[in-house]
Amino acid sequence: MAKSIVVLRAYQDGLHLNITPTFSVTEVTEAIRKEFERMNQPLAGVSVQIDMNAPLLTEADLAYLKTELQDTYGMEVRGLNIADGTGDSTGVLGEKRPLAARAERGRIEKTRVVRETIRSGQTEDFPEGNLIIYGDVNPGGEVSAGGDIVVLGALRGSAHAGMNGKLSSVIIAMNLVPLQLQIGNYISRPSWGQKSRGYPEIARAGTEDIIIVEEL
Description:
By secondary structure, this protein is α/β, with parallel strands linked by helices. The protein is built from three helices and 17 strands. The longest helix is centred in the first third of the chain and has 15 residues, at 25-39. A six-stranded mixed β-sheet has the order 1-2-3-4-5-6. It has a six-stranded mixed β-sheet with strand order 7-9-11-13-16-17, with no helix packed on it. Strands 8-10-12-14-15 form a five-stranded mixed β-sheet, with no helix packed on it. Strand 4 (76-83) and strand 5 (88-91) form a beta hairpin.
């Protein structure tokens, strides 16, 4: 199977767009368009970081991609990092910082992508790693993952991240109105009839067995 040019992944700090460096900026832009069309979910206001390894693209190309994501798709690009092969990350302006967070993320080996809505009575479990849903999780639907859960749609059912006890896992949804959230052994049941706040949100474990929900 051919390697994807672009891959959208979920990490503890939000969404990352990983780009294979051996393609032209035209090919990368087209691959992003096709990937987002296949997702068929609104991405306006969603925060994303671009990650690349030893790129062949120029700084002008990278700046163009950032502008494309912001202007065409309405996304917020919070970072654009390039691994230089030495354990550091270099941004387009030459700034370097340790990749401790990248190493932490790398401990979760796999990410499963589900390209459909989880309907009432359906479950999707992935204890080996992260879970990304290209669709909604309807009331009565349940999703569980050993790592993070990202729903690129509405989360109206139940979600359990860190199902193996990993309290650093997070739950992200474009529309977060769940029946129940669970991170590790922390459980939250939002008020009945809770309405969408109209922006993407992230849920994470706080102190004293509570789950904190905030704007992404």
